[in-house]
């Protein structure tokens, strides 16, 4: 083995159905218990002999005990179901934490090493709170045919290993998205009987064609004055949507009067779109790239479009050093942030005949991940990624293929695209899903066609054609019936058998599908523009239908009895009775912000305040979660509960039998911890508050309680974490140097209560940074992708200066409205798995209103109290159903079991590993320690 680490095995006698049933019952006993049961661990199953796992049957798991002087122990499960079951079926035992429950794997053991002792031992980690990011069990996977490790984008309970897979668990520190800290051994060294090669077997599907005329007609029906698109409910033109629509119409029908008018309109608004900071400043890479591609596709000149040399100005603006403002690395275009925009800018140079700025091209190539895909966000020097983003890989591949000189990178990307295609011809929004995503499929089809994989590209187009709605446009998801503008763009270009690298209006053949309706006829619209849902004051919200979420419908989703157990709490794992108190408070925050169901809100608050017990064994109250009155009281958790009490008119100095404000004051660190004591990172921090989010909650609670002098230290420490150059905050404490929207918004809400000039300046700078990170669709980038959570928090932050950022707030609310499903819940991310998630829904609903946690208030007088006390346990699991109908799992089985680095950073290493969702692993770590997002 690498570094001389021996590989052990768990070869044991085979076992049948009875043994498997016994192991399942053991797992249930573990998950159903809290407290003592959590620390006792689960009994191992009788493992299948390693020989029962082959290259095409069963899965192997390898656990590295090297941190304690041991070797790598392997085990086999001949009939794998989940990564969590794989561990137990292979003979390993696990233990969760008291704070987070069995969902978070804190300890691992196997009788092949030290007679089954679980590590870390109790003296090394009591497993009461979430372990730090520097010392936890990280989870790695290698599907069949993959010769490198990928940091699992899903938790062990959500990960479903295929036959021939191998998985690994390694103890120690891990960088964001698995950029460091992986296994010291290769998959081949632990895989059963060698690897398999999936080869190239294109999907065999029934051919179908996209009705381009109908699609073009639907897009034209969205135009105002026949040449531009407005944001829904707004009189302001959306130039980004106008440019993307023009490119789609160019693909659908070639030259047309409509396209000519749209091109002229965009040319007349070039300064507004491509030079938002002034024509004497660096251009917007997004605006300049899209206008350049439009010019090149319509036989125009990007060096003289709208009176501007778009490519010349892009070249002048290119970053010459990483340390420059708005630059992540040398060769970037300022304020880009994402690889897709960088790739489209590079492609626009290539299409114009070059020269392509060499450093800009190199930056695209540098973002290829271990699996051949490409990172969605720009990385700094020394950072790396293991798993690519399906929404980024196609355009990065197209740019490198057209530029030339990157044959190896293109070959790896081609392999990645082939492997990602489903049997239906579709591509999922993220690896591992079985449902197709129209946007990912449309973009991937473009790349495959350019690469010469015509059969695969045609299979993708056939799938797309079957997703076309009666109106002519396309929805985001497989089987969607309501058309949306974003997925329609890529679907049309792919359906025209074109791509952004070769798109031109010099069409020699017309679309093959005859018109089905008048292409200029506008789509039918809902005549009702009445706002829906109550506002924080009980009146209607300040938005029309479609311009913001349906608050009442969202509240009904959150308070449904299948989710809110006994009307009191959400579960950590469905069916266990183990309360996720942090998520429960998130739900209460959402109900307090909307005012949609004060009776349900009071039921939660009364349950917490009267020390109601959950259904775990032994039963727990909110006090066990905060640790109040103990040596492990967590400052962020104390602050979170105190802010809820303050928001609903309860006394935080006498809540659940404790003075939370006094406890919070006692949790302020007077000096950094020494030796093994990791509770205090620095003076002024709160004990066991591992993130900016947690620190901010503590500050808000103290300031709302009038403890300005006692909060001075925590305020100063929070302020010291702000990046002076950008105004952003990192996710973790101690700072990891990253910047995220969620933490920045939360810190701004906290400092907004300080009111001194320094804090006002910090808040102003933070809000400007948040606004600069808004995506064209109104969302904000998080580790989970185009994140619902990040958009909600951004609204809360920007609402601190609503008069200045009204346009951004409106776009973000419209974005959230688009992520609300028919059951009232919300998706985790626009580019992630479709289906309602409880945690994402609490965040979206509360954030949409825009009320800061520093001022959140809800009067519960006159409401009827619901009986507090112990809630009945339940054994019926809730299931997240793609598409958003049906109950979602409470604590996080679903796309976003807790959010990712973008929700509150990499903090709390690997928390809720069994629940984490795609692109949310890092965020999840922060969330568990904070009890969810806050």
Task: Report on the architecture of this protein.
It is a single chain. By secondary structure, the protein is mainly α. The strands form three sheets. The protein has a six-stranded mixed beta sheet. Strands 4-5 form a two-stranded antiparallel ribbon. Helix 11 crosses helix 12 and helix 18 runs antiparallel to helix 19. The longest helix has 16 residues, at 17-32. Mean pLDDT is 81; it is low at 1-43, 194-199, 507-540 and 868-934.
Principal-axes geometry comes out as globular
What's the overall average pLDDT, rounded? 81
Strand content: under 5%
**Percent helix:** 25-40%
Largest sheet report: 6 strands, mixed
| Count of alpha/pi helices | 32
By DSSP, the count of extended strands is 10
Output the radius of gyration. 27 Å
**Uncertain spans:** 1-43, 194-199, 507-540, 868-934
Question: In what order do the strands lie side by side in the largest sheet?
Answer: 1-3-2-8-6-7
End-to-end separation:
42 Å
Q: Name the structural class.
A: mainly alpha
């Amino acid at each position: 083995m690498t570094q001389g680490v021996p590989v052990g095995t768990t070869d044991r006698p085979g076992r049948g159905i009875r043994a498997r049933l016994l192991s399942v019952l053991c797992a249930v006993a573990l998950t159903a218990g809290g407290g003592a049961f959590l620390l006792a661990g689960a009994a191992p199953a009788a493992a299948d002999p390693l020989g029962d796992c082959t290259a095409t049957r069963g899965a192997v798991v390898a656990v590295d005990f090297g941190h304690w002087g041991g070797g790598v122990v392997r085990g086999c499960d001949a009939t794998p179901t989940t990564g969590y079951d794989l561990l137990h079926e292979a003979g390993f035992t696990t233990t969760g934490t008291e704070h987070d429950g069995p969902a978070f794997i804190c300890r691992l053991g196997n009788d092949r090493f030290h007679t089954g002792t679980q590590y870390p031992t109790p003296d090394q980690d009591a497993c009461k709170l979430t372990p730090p990011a520097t010392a936890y069990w990280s989870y790695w996977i290698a599907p069949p045919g993959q010769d490198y490790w990928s940091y699992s984008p899903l938790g062990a309970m959500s990960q479903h290993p295929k036959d021939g897979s191998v998985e690994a668990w390694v103890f120690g520190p891990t960088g964001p998205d698995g950029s460091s800290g992986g296994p010291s051994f290769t998959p081949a060294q632990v895989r059963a009987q060698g690897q398999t090669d999936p080869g190239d077997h294109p999907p065999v599907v029934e051919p179908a064609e996209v009705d381009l005329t109908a699609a073009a007609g639907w897009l034209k029906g969205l135009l105002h004055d026949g040449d531009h698109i407005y944001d829904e409910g707004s009189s302001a033109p959306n130039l980004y949507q106008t440019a993307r629509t023009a490119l789609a119409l160019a693909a659908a029908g070639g030259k047309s009067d409509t396209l000519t008018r749209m091109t002229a309109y965009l040319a007349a608004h070039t300064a507004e779109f491509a030079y938002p900071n002034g024509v004497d400043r660096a251009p917007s890479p997004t605006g300049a790239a899209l206008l350049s591609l439009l010019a090149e596709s319509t036989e125009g000149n990007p060096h003289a479009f709208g009176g501007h040399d778009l490519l010349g100005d892009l070249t002048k603006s290119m970053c010459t050093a990483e340390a420059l403002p708005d630059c992540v690395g040398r060769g970037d275009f300022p304020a880009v942030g994402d690889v897709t925009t960088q790739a489209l800018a590079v492609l626009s140079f290539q299409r114009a005949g070059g020269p392509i700025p060499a450093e800009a091209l190199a930056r695209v190539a540098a973002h290829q991940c271990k699996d051949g895909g490409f990172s969605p966000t720009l990385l700094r020097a020394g950072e790396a990624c293991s798993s690519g983003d399906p929404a980024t890989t196609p355009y990065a591949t197209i740019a490198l293929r057209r530029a030339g000189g990157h044959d190896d990178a293109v070959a790896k990307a081609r392999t990645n695209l082939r492997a990602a295609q489903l049997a239906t011809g579709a591509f999922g929004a993220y690896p591992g899903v079985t449902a197709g995503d129209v946007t990912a499929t449309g973009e991937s089809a473009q790349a495959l066609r350019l690469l010469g994989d015509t059969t695969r590209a045609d299979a993708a187009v056939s799938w797309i054609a079957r997703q076309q709605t009666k109106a002519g446009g396309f929805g985001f998801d497989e089987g969607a019936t309501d058309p949306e503008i974003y997925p329609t763009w890529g679907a049309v270009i792919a359906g025209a058998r074109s791509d952004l690298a070769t798109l031109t209006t010099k069409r020699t053949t017309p679309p093959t599908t005859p018109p089905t309706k008048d292409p200029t006829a506008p789509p039918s619209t809902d005549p009702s523009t009445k706002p829906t849902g109550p506002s924080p004051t009980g009146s209607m919200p300040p938005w029309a239908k479609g311009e913001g979420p349906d608050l009442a419908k969202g509240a009904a989703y959150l308070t449904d009895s299948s989710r809110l157990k006994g009307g009191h709490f959400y579960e950590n794992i469905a069916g266990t009775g183990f309360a996720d108190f942090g998520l429960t408070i998130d739900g209460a925050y959402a109900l307090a912000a909307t005012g949609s169901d004060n009776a349900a809100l009071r039921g939660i608050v009364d349950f917490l305040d009267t020390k109601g017990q959950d259904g775990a064994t032994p039963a727990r109250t909110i006090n066990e979660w905060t640790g109040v009155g103990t040596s492990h009281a967590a400052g962020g958790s104390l602050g979170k509960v105190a802010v809820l009490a303050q928001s609903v008119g309860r006394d935080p100095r006498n809540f659940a039998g404790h003075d939370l404000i006094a406890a919070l004051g006692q949790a302020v660190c007077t000096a950094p911890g020494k030796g093994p004591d990791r509770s205090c990172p620095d003076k002024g921090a709160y004990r066991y508050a591992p993130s900016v989010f947690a620190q901010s909650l503590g500050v808000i609670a103290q300031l709302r309680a009038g403890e300005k002098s006692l909060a001075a230290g925590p305020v100063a420490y929070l302020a010291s974490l702000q990046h002076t150059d950008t105004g952003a905050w990192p996710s973790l404490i101690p700072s990891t140097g990253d910047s995220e929207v969620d933490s920045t918004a939360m810190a701004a809400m906290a400092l907004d209560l300080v009111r001194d000039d320094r804090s006002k300046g910090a808040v102003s700078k933070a809000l400007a940074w948040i606004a600069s990170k808004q995506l064209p669709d109104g969302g904000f980038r998080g580790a989970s992708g185009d994140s619902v959570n990040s958009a909600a928090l951004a609204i809360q932050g920007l609402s601190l200066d609503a008069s200045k950022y009204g346009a951004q707030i409106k776009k973000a609310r419209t974005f959230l409205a688009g992520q609300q499903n028919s059951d009232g819940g919300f998706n985790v991310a626009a580019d992630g798995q479709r289906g309602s998630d409880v945690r994402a829904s609490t965040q979206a609903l509360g954030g949409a209103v825009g009320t800061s946690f520093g001022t959140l208030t809800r009067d519960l007088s006159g409401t009827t109290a619901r009986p507090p006390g112990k809630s009945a346990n339940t054994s019926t699991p809730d299931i997240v159903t793609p598409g958003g109908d049906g109950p979602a799992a409470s604590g996080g089985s679903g796309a976003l079991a807790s959010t990712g680095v973008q929700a509150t950073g990499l903090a709390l290493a690997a928390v809720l590993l069994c629940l984490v969702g795609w692109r949310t692993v890092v965020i999840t770590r922060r969330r568990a320690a904070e009890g969810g997002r806050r």
